[in-house]
Design a protein that fits this description.
binds zinc ion, mainly alpha, two-stranded antiparallel sheet, 125 residues, 5 helices, 2 strands
Length: 125
């Protein structure tokens, strides 16, 4: 899917570039769920998006009051459920992230393994 180079958002986003930028600026380019700073790095900027607090699928309006800056991982975790409030949604997303972190930490491949193989590749050159 093509990316808009100015907003780094998907071109087919349901909000216009101008609308999306206004929301990102209002929220200082930080995810309203996890706090990820979209200005901290290019990688962070790539994952920033605008979220419908009440999803469009549930008749959520394209209104600034229903739109927040959001990173794509939080957007995916939040899904299309309906929450009582933004705070309620935030709690759900952060709890899920914490659960996922624990699972990841329990199953992670130690970084040293990757570093060692990367080193082996570079010394072969
Ligand atoms: Zn986030």
């Amino acid at each position: 899917m093509p990316l808009n180079i100015m907003t780094l958002s998907r071109v087919d986003m349901p909000v216009s570039q101008a609308e999306g930028l206004k929301i990102l600026e209002r929220d200082q380019y930080c995810c309203r769920y996890c706090g990820l700073d979209g200005r901290a790095s290019f990688e962070n900027a790539l994952v920033m998006s605008v979220d419908f607090v009440v999803p469009r699928a549930r008749k959520g309006k394209k209104d600034p009051a229903n739109l927040v800056a959001c990173c794509r991982p939080c957007n995916t975790i939040k899904g299309t459920r309906v929450y009582k409030s933004l705070e309620d949604a935030k709690k759900y997303v952060l709890d899920r992230r914490e659960e996922m972190r624990r699972t990841w930490e329990a199953n992670r491949v130690p970084a040293a393994t990757r570093a060692a193989s990367a080193h082996a590749v570079s010394s072969a050159n």
